């Protein structure tokens, strides 16, 4: 009897021991698995941070390429960037790569000045934009009356545009902040407004260099005719042209002629029967705005036809002709808008209406850069091999001042995946994200540049036309009121990073 009890007791004890051992093994296994998972997560996070740093290096490399070509951009020449940058190689042969990503149309660079600026366009111009109408245009103008739009994505707060930002139109029954899933069949696709509209259109108010003394005047601030006549203004006109031109302008201004915008200059040229072929030099040298930048000018050399048709004086037929002929222009013609008249696309009356809204240069460009690693065993002959630990960023680079800057930057690695899984309301208001590498490299409110602030482009410039160290603006040759040129001017440009305090 006692032996039977002992046997049962020993069996029970063995059973308990087995349970304890099993629990201990499971606990140890869980600890090991958790440690391995945490290590894997830490490694993945570290690789992602490294890929973000590579992407930021690609943005800086692109910014430097734009800086070097700034003089060419002022003369209406499109930038030429390498398609990729190989940053370093590890002993294993794995290479760190950043490369440009082509858009739907196959282009690697997208001109922001070829779009309609929602902060400066008139209500009538906005109403003509694809995807908008008169009622929505009215709402946009009302909204920007209290604050400027800092991004096209801000339009998601405007009733009627919650889905159109990314090329979809959803039901208006849901509130703007709704997270509800919207089935793809409930949406009608259209061209995204981000491809048509912008808030980054800032043309430097400088001469492209036309006519007499062209080379020495390239990049020099235009002579502002707004305000009253002054001896300083007279000297500036005499230096650029001659004393006869100075006396003529003085006479006109003393008779009450106002030059508040470019169309006012065109009116005077037409009044004196100056031939259109001679307008270019005058419009290049003079302006009606004393500011360092012209805001909201649409680049006639890069804008799509549907956006050119939003400009006063340009209808759909004229816009089509502009798109067809601009690629055949001679270099000298690209410096000015007057070819629109000399090529018989616009009448002088139509040109006068359009002159205040057009430009001939793009100084802000949107790029998409993907970054990561290419395995060492990848086929060297393969074009654009897949990237490991891939990160994608979108940036708008601005070289309207000699000190380049990042006007806009966000990571978009998962945006396309989110769209493919199913459109969400929140996709239209993706928060701009600052890559971790950016936080350390360039604190907000400071210039973001891969070169010194005093670095220059491929052309030489006299030291007298150096920038203001605070604003990045080039000082004016003469103020409208005849006072001494301001050493510092307020920088009106929008953007996440600015060259200095505003």
Task: Walk me through the structure.
The protein is an alpha+beta fold and 502 residues long. The strands form six sheets. Strands 1, 2, 3, 14, 15 and 16 form a six-stranded antiparallel beta sheet that branches. Strands 4-7 form a two-stranded parallel sheet. A two-stranded antiparallel sheet has the order 5-6. Helix 6 packs antiparallel against helix 7 and helix 8 (262-271) runs antiparallel to helix 13 (348-354). The protein contains 15 helices and 16 strands. It is elongated, with a radius of gyration of 30 Å.
Question: Which short descriptors sum up this protein?
Answer:
502 residues, alpha+beta, six-stranded antiparallel beta sheet, two-stranded parallel sheet, 15 helices, 16 strands
- Protein structure class: alpha+beta
Radius of gyration: 30 Å
Sheet-strand content, in percent, reads: 5-15%
Overall pLDDT: 79
Helical fraction equals 25-40%
Largest sheet: 6 strands, antiparallel
Count of runs of 4 or more consecutive helical residues: 15
Which segments are poorly predicted (pLDDT under 50) over 5 or more consecutive residues?
A: 168-189, 423-487
Shape estimate: elongated
The beta-strand count equals 16
Distance between the amino and carboxyl termini: 97 Å
């Amino acid at each position: 009897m006692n032996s039977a009890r002992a046997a049962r007791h020993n069996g029970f004890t063995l059973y308990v021991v087995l349970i304890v051992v099993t629990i201990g093994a499971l606990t140890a296994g869980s600890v090991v698995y958790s440690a391995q998972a945490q290590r894997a997560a830490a490694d993945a996070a570290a690789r992602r941070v490294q890929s973000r740093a590579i992407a930021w290096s690609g943005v800086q490399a692109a910014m430097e390429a734009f800086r070097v070509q700034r003089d060419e951009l002022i003369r209406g020449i499109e930038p030429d960037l390498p398609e990729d940058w190989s940053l370093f190689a590890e002993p294993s042969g794995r290479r760190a790569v950043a490369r440009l990503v082509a858009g739907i149309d196959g282009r690697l660079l997208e001109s922001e000045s070829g779009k309609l600026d929602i902060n400066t366009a008139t209500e009538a111009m906005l109403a003509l934009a694809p995807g908008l109408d008169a009622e929505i245009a009215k709402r946009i103008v009302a909204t920007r009356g209290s604050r400027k739009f800092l991004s096209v994505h801000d339009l998601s707060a405007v009733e009627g545009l919650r889905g159109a930002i990314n090329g979809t139109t959803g039901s208006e029954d849901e509130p703007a902040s709704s997270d509800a899933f919207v089935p793809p069949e409930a949406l009608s696709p259209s061209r995204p407004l981000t491809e048509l509209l912008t808030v980054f259109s800032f043309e430097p108010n400088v001469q492209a260099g036309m006519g007499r003394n062209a080379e020495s005047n390239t990049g020099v601030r235009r002579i502002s005719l707004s305000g009253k006549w002054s001896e300083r203004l007279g000297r500036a006109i005499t230096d650029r042209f001659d004393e006869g031109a100075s006396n003529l302008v003085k006479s006109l201004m003393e008779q009450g002629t106002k030059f508040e915008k470019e169309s006012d200059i065109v009116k005077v040229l037409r009044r004196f029967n100056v031939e259109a072929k001679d307008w270019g030099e005058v419009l290049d040298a003079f302006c009606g705005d004393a500011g360092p930048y012209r805001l909201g000018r649409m680049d006639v050399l890069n804008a799509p036809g549907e956006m050119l048709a939003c400009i006063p004086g340009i209808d759909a037929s004229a816009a089509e002709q502009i798109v067809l002929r601009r690629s055949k222009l001679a270099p000298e013609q690209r410096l000015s808008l007057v070819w629109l008249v000399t090529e018989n696309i616009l009448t002088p009356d139509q040109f006068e209406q359009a002159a205040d809204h057009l430009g001939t240069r793009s100084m802000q460009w949107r790029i998409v850069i993907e970054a990561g690693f290419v395995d060492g065993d990848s086929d060297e002959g393969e074009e654009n091999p897949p990237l490991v630990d891939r990160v994608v960023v979108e940036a708008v680079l601005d070289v309207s001042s000699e000190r380049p800057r990042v006007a806009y930057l966000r990571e978009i690695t998962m945006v396309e995946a989110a769209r493919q899984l199913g459109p969400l309301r929140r996709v239209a208001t993706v928060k701009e994200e600052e890559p971790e590498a950016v936080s350390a490299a360039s604190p907000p409110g400071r210039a973001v540049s891969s070169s010194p602030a005093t670095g220059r482009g491929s052309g030489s410039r006299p030291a007298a036309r150096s920038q203001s160290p605070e604003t990045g603006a080039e000082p004016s040759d003469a103020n409208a009121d005849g006072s001494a040129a301001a050493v510092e001017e307020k920088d009106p440009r929008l953007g996440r990073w600015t060259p200095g305090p505003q």
